[in-house]
Amino acid sequence: MKSPINRSIYQSEIKRSVFISVLFHADGTACFKDELTRIKKSFPDAKHYCYAYIIDGIKHSSDDGEPHGTAGRPILELLEKNCLDDVGLITVRYFGGIKLGVGLLLRTYVDTALNSIKKAEIGQIVELNSYAITLPNYDLFYELLKLSSKNDFTLENIVYGETIALNLVSKKEINAILLNSFLNHIKIDNIVKLKRVEEMNDEK
Q1: Quick one: 168 and 110 in the same domain?
Q2: pTM > 0.85
Q3: Environment class of residue 152 by beta-carbon count within 10 Å: exposed (0-12), middle (13-18) or buried (19+)?
Q4: Of 88, 104, 120, which residue sits at a domain end?
Q5: In 28-52, which positions are buried (b, 16+ CB within 10 angstroms) versus exposed (e)?
Q6: How many structural domains are present in the chain?
Q7: Is the pLDDT of residue 179 over 80?
């Protein structure tokens, strides 16, 4: 699956109504709700905040007072057609005083949302393992640095002290690599599953 790397905004205007679509990556429903709150604060005088999201395959949409089926569901269908996940799309509408009619309203929501998707940089969702590790000395830390350059993992959130704490992030399960290289000198405190969005070389 794919997800936006950057936050993408597209604005359109028709018959004095202004539509602003915001596409963004959402790690969870709490992340989506936080973004919805920020958008409402950024556009406090808007009439409607219509949206859709797909997060871990869970789908939800809202017309937020617009005629049923003219906003939320069409936005959700765009996310589905573009094979997006962990994604939210919110379209803000400032009502210009002229009713657009159901057909034109639907087309405007779809066009504005679609253009925000077209503007976005889309990446591939990658599943990772994050190992919270404690190393007893710097010799082992430097050995782990060397090992990271030869294997598909990175060292992150490094905290230096009498011992060295860090997160080792890998696409593979690497317990065997660590055990073979460090035997009993390395302590794995925790293992967490992560998802991140990485750039793609092919076209979205």
Answers
A1: no
A2: no
A3: exposed
A4: 120
A5: eeebbeebbeebeeebeebebbbbb
A6: 2
A7: no
